[in-house]
Each structure stands twice: as C-alpha cells, then as structure tokens.
C-alpha cells in the first residue's frame, strides 16, 4: 500500500541538496535573493600564456562560449545605452576645470584651436559641445590589467568574464554545467570557475554519497538481521516494516515541506537501526510466540525517544526539524508494527546462540563513572570548541575551492565581502550606494556610478554659477573675430547640454543600463563588494545586509541558540524524569547511560570543534541511552535482555556508523557522534557493576 502511494506522490523528487534547507527566516530569503544577482552567475575563464597562438586560442574559446544562448560577455563598457547615458549627463558626472567663466581666456583658446586645425597632419577632432575641454574626467583607473585589448591575469594568461542566464533549478544548472564543460574540455591549460559549479558538483557528490550510504546500510543491516535472527519469515517482515516506516516518514515530511534536505534522507535509513530495538526486545523475550501481554519497558523507551525528538522538532531550524519529524513518524510506524502487529503473525521463536550471561573480567562502580562524567562536563564548559559555520557541513570541494581562490587573489577580491544594499526607491538606492562608496573608496558598488538626485541638484547649481550664458556669448563674438564661420560653435554649451532633465529611473531603465537591481515588492535591492576592514562601519547603515553565505548561516544558527538551550534542557529533564519514575532505586545506575556517552562526546569536543549536527546527534544519543537505562532495570538481568541490548547497539552502530564513509561533513558529524556515544553505552553494558536492589516489601 505504501509503495503504491510512494510511486504516486514520488516524495524523492522533493529532496534537495541546496544549503538553503539549513537556513531559516529572513536569512533564507536573503540567501535566495543573493543568488539572483549576476555575481552569483558569473563565469570566469582564463587560458594560460600570452603568445600569439595563446591569444588565438583564447579568442576562439571566448567566441565559442559567447555563442551559447545562455552565456554572454560581461562588460558594462560595451553597454551602448549606459555610454549614451553617461554622455548625456557628462557635465554632472565630472568636475569643471575652472570655478567660473572669467578664468577662461576665450581668445587665446580659440587661437590654439585654429592653430591645431590648420597645422595638424591628421584630422583634428573637435568636441563642439565642449570645445574648451572644460570637463575634467574624474574616472579612476581600473585595477584590471589588459593586453591586446583583452583582460589578463598577471603571470598566467588572458581572462574573459561571462554572465550565465540560467533558472535556479537543479536540472537547468546541470545542463549549462555540462555545456560549459563540453566546450572547455576541447582546450588545454584553461582555468574556469562559477559558483554554479559548486552547486552541480556538490549536488552530484552528495547524491552519490547518499545513494551509496543507503545501499550499504541496507546491505549491512540486512546481513546483520538475517544472521542474528536466523528466521527468514521474521527477517522478511522486518525488512517490510522498516521499509514501510521509512516510506511513510518520507511521505509525511515531503507533504509538510516543499524542499527537504537530502541529509534527512540519508538519516532515514540510520534511524531504522534504532527502531529495530523494539523488535529485538519483543522477539528475544518471546512476545511473538506467547501471550505475555504488553511490554512496558519497550513502550517507555519508545515514548521517551519520540518525545525527545518531538521537543527537538520545536526548534525553528529546518534541517533539525525535518530530521526530527521524520524520526517521530518512522519510529512510531515501526513501533506499531513490532508491538501490535507482529504478535499476530505467528512468528516462531528461536533460542539465541548462547543462554549464558556474559560476565566481564572487571567491573566499575556507578558512582565512579558519575564522578568521572561530572569532572568532564565541568572541564568541557571552559574547553569545548564550537564551529558555527554551517557551510562547513557541506561537501568541501577542494578543486573548486582552489579555483575560486585563484581568481579572487588575481582579481583583488580576496579581502572583499558581498553585501546587499536596499532603498525605498531607486533614487534612495543610488544615494545609499554613494554613501557606501564614500566610506570605502576601494569598494565595488555598481549603482554608485549612476547619477543621484542630490548630485544633480548640486551640479546644476555649480553650472548656473559658472555663467555659461556669458561664456557662450564671448565664444560667439571672439570666434568671428578670429575667422571662424558664423554659427560654427552653435552646438557649444547649449541649454540642452548644460541642463538636461533629471532621469526618471525605473527598474526597466536600470536593467537596460546594465545594472543588477531587484524589487522584492517592498524595496529595491542591489549588491556591492566591500573591503573587510570597512565591514563594521558599513554594516552600521540600516540599509545594508551582509550577504556572505557564511554570515547568513551563522546568523541563522545564532537565532536558534536560545531555542536549542530551552528545548535541549526540556529534553534532558524529560529523560531524567522518565528514568526516575521507571527505574526508581536503580536511577543512578540508569543515569550513567546518559551521562557517560555525553561525557565522551564532550571529550571529543576538546580536539574537534562541535558543529550543530554533533550537538543534535548528542541529544539523539541521550534519547537512545535512556532506552538502555530502562532495559537494564531488571533486578535479575536476563541473558535475553542483554542480547537484545547488544543486538540493538550493534544495529545502531552499523546504521549510523556507515555514514562515516561520506565526504559530507554533516553526515560524518552524525556518524562520529553516534559511534562515540554507542561505544560508551556498550562499555557500560559490559563493565558497569550492577546495583543489587531488594525488591521485597
């Protein structure tokens, strides 16, 4: 039944590798917004060498890439509308060489012009709009190097900057990625980088990792269960139950979220290794062959684990919430199967391999373990390290990281940070861009090169004070005296040239001029690249947002600190309360199954910074640990209980341990935390001395 529903709704299509599934609230909005700008879709291509043959190769590659319908050369200098715009407002973009017209010797300048015209061996090009060259260009030289009319990377080769027009869907990104690589592989000694490469390569790597993990988990757990159970009928039903729990979990989670992190999918197989625990304790205690009633210990274990996941699911963090909700559903479906359906399947019981209880060569008293854990926890308060950069949870693509560094270093962008700049209207957006440029003269703020309203008014006033009317009259009179034809300077310093109307900016006009501006329904937003040492000053502006992916992830994580502390504490208190109620006089012994694994994980934090997935998995280990604390509550611990716990631990160890083969840091973090925690529980099972409790009233 669930397979039919699975193929109808195809939940696997909603699993995504996009890092935005790890973001929350406005940080997620800012992340998606930042991906819409051209800088996020830039393609940098450089060929090695500066010889004539190298230039020919470069031009050929440049032409072939440009011929692609979705790839175009990025160069605002080639935007004719922007050039026309700058020419129209030339008087307003530049300064005047003189303060007023009285400083100009009109007669002398006209004589110089006449001399140049009559003696020049080549055609003399006179700018009739500004024959005296009164406009003083204020353009700063570009930091980019050029050779043979092309951009170059010093000590390497020619450089081309392209813009990729592509929809932000996985399919479209993969198609353009394949097209680009089909072109690039025809050439040697080529370096190319685009942030789209990260998405495609990391996506494929993560998907392949998850597929391998799921396959290995299924094979490993399948072999384990078949060997342990020695009952083909039970094994087939267990496989069907676990598959059902995973599929129902996927259906529920994908119905709640439009996009689900693929990490949750990888986690789905591992969580079945926890739910198998319920089957082992029923089967090995012969609940499926005899009418023994309701197994309260298993129910308490299930209830506390699910409640712990439910509390953690209240944390407003998409990835953790998705994993937690999935786990609640999956564990619940599995528990219903193993506790209520299996007793009716007529499953024959087989005795375990050995009926003798294992005895450890030495034992450790519980109070010593508690003292050890308290000392570790106190030390951890001052020595634990934490990694709050969630991007580090992603696959670390070393090849692309090196390529990105190569281009950033050579384009002087290594110390630049990306910010988003907003304005209530386009005029205020331009004005805000100008303020940033004033604060950081080395910044790249594209919209700061547009004319602002305040600049226009100020320059208009300066032009009026200059008295061009008098200059024009002097020019007309003196030109006739020197011998120029009447009307020769009629186009010079005209009213139209001096006093154009202030531009009425619209979003369409801005885009036609070649600027990257987005309207989100409330504000106009663009991007800028600023110097690291100016970041604090510029972020003080209320119209600036730090768009660095790393910062957005850190901000998103900081917002859930409080929630994590609250719900983590509630989870911990729930576990303690449940243990106290169920285990009673054996509470301290059971409590070690929570404290000791946690202390081992904290010791690990002395050497490796803990990320959010380490912390999340630590709570899961605590939730799992309470199960074993409850199961160990028997006064005379039976061999079947010990076996059930060992089988469960081995299953959980295998289920989560297989994640360690992944190159995805998030899954690796889950694996290492689970391995440390489960090893701690197994250590207690073998070496902790059990307390003898007198049960007589």
Name the features:
697 residues, 26 helices, 14 strands, 8% strand, elongated
Characterise this structure.
The protein has 26 helices and 14 strands. Strands 2, 3, 6, 7, 8 and 9 form a 6-stranded antiparallel β-sheet that branches. Among the domains are: 95-136 and 456-498, no CATH class; 415-451 and 507-548, no CATH class. Helix 10 packs parallel to helix 12. The longest helix is centred in the first third of the chain and has 35 residues, at 195-229. Strand 6 and strand 7 (150-153) form a beta hairpin. 37% of the residues are buried. The model has no long low-confidence stretch (mean pLDDT 82). It has helices spanning 2-9, 25-34, 52-66, 80-88, 90-93, 106-119, 170-184, 195-229, 232-256, 262-283, 296-312, 318-341, 366-383, 398-410, 426-439, 453-466, 468-482, 495-498, 507-512, 535-539, 549-558, 561-583, 587-605, 612-631, 639-657, 665-687, and strands spanning 15-16, 42-48, 71-73, 95-96, 135-136, 145-147, 150-153, 157-164, 190-193, 260-261, 416-423, 518-519, 524-531, 544-546. It is of the alpha+beta class and 697 residues long.
- Taken as a percent bin, the fraction of beta residues is 5-15%
Radius of gyration: 36 Å
Distance between the termini: 52 Å
Regions with pLDDT < 50 over 5+ consecutive residues? none
State the helicity in percent bands.
Answer: 55-70%
Number of helices: 26
SS-derived structural category: alpha+beta
Q: Describe the largest sheet.
A: 6 strands, antiparallel
| Strand elements, count | 14
List the helices and strands and how they pair.
Blueprint (H helix, E strand, L loop, with lengths): L1 H8 L5 E2 L8 H10 L7 E7 L3 H15 L4 E3 L6 H9 L1 H4 L1 E2 L9 H14 L15 E2 L8 E3 L2 E4 L3 E8 L5 H15 L5 E4 L1 H35 L2 H25 L3 E2 H22 L12 H17 L5 H24 L24 H18 L14 H13 L5 E8 L2 H14 L13 H14 L1 H15 L12 H4 L8 H6 L5 E2 L4 E8 L3 H5 L4 E3 L2 H10 L2 H23 L3 H19 L6 H20 L7 H19 L7 H23 L10
Parallel strand pairs: 1-10
Antiparallel strand pairs: 2-8, 2-9, 3-8, 4-5, 6-7, 7-8, 11-13, 11-14, 12-13
């Amino acid at each position: 039944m669930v397979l039919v529903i699975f193929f109808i709704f195809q939940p696997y299509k909603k699993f995504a590798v996009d890092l935005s599934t790890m973001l929350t609230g406005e940080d997620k909005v800012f992340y998606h917004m930042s991906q819409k700008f051209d800088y996020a879709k830039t393609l940098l291509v450089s060929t090695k060498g500066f010889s004539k043959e190298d230039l020919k190769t470069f031009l050929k590659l440049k032409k072939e890439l440009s011929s692609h319908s979705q790839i175009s050369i990025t160069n605002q200098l080639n935007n004719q509308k922007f050039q026309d715009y700058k020419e129209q407002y030339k008087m307003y973009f530049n300064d005047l060489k003189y303060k007023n017209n009285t400083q100009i010797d009109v007669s002398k300048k006209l004589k110089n012009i006449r001399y140049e015209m009559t003696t020049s061996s080549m055609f003399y090009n006179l700018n009739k709009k500004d024959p005296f060259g009164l406009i003083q260009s204020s353009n700063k030289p570009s930091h980019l190097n050029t050779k043979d009319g092309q951009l170059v990377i010093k000590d390497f080769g020619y450089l081309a900057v392209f813009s990729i027009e592509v929809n932000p869907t996985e399919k479209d990104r993969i198609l353009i990625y394949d097209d680009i690589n089909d072109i690039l592989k025809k050439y040697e000694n080529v370096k190319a980088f685009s942030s789209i490469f990260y998405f495609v390569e990391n996506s494929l790597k993560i998907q392949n990792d998850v597929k391998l993990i799921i396959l290995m988990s299924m094979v490993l757990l399948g072999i384990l269960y078949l060997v342990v159970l020695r009952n083909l009928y039970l094994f087939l039903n267990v496989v069907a139950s676990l598959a059902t729990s995973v599929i129902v979990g996927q259906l529920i989670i994908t119905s709640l979220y439009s996009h689900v992190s693929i990490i949750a999918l990888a986690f789905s197989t591992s969580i079945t290794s926890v739910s198998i625990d319920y089957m082992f304790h029923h089967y090995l205690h012969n609940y499926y062959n005899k009418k023994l009633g309701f197994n309260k210990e298993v129910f308490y274990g299930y209830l506390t684990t699910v409640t712990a996941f439910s509390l953690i699911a209240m944390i407003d963090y998409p990835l953790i919430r998705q994993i937690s909700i999935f786990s609640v559903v999956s564990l619940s479906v599995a528990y219903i199967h193993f506790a209520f359906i299996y007793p009716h399947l007529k499953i024959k019981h087989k005795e375990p391999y050995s009926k003798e209880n294992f005895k450890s060569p030495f034992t450790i008293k519980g109070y010593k373990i508690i003292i050890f854990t308290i000392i570790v926890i106190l030390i951890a308060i001052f020595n634990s390290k934490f990694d709050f950069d969630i991007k580090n949870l992603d696959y670390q693509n070393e090849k692309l990281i090196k390529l990105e560094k190569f281009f950033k270093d050579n384009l002087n962008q290594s110390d630049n940070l990306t910010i988003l700049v907003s304005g209530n209207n386009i005029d205020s957006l331009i004005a805000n861009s100008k303020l940033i440029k004033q604060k950081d003269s080395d910044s790249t703020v594209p919209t700061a090169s547009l004319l602002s309203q305040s600049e226009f008014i100020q320059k208009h006033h300066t032009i009026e004070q200059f008295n061009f009317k008098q200059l024009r009259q002097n020019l007309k009179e003196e030109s006739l005296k020197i011998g120029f034809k009447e009307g020769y300077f009629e186009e010079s310093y005209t009213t139209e040239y001096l006093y154009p109307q202030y531009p009425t900016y619209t979003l369409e006009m801005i885009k036609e001029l070649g600027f990257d501006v987005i309207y989100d329904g409330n504000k106009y937003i663009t991007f800028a690249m600023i110097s690291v040492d100016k970041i604090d000053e510029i972020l003080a502006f209320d119209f600036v947002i730090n768009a660095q992916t790393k910062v957005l992830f850190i901000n998103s994580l900081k917002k859930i600190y409080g929630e994590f502390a609250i719900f983590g504490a509630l989870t911990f208190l729930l576990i303690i309360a449940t243990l106290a109620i169920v285990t009673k006089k054996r509470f301290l012994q059971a409590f070690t199954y929570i404290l000791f694994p946690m202390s081992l994980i904290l010791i690990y934090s002395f050497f490796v910074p803990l990320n959010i997935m380490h912390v999340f998995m630590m709570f899961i280990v605590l939730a799992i640990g309470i199960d074993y604390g409850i199961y160990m509550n028997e006064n005379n611990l039976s061999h079947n209980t010990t076996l059930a716990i060992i089988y469960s631990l081995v299953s959980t160890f295998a289920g989560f341990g297989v994640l360690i083969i992944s190159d995805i840091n998030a899954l690796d973090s889950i694996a290492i935390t689970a391995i440390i925690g489960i090893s701690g529980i197994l250590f207690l099972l073998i070496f902790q001395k059990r307390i003898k409790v007198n049960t007589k009233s």
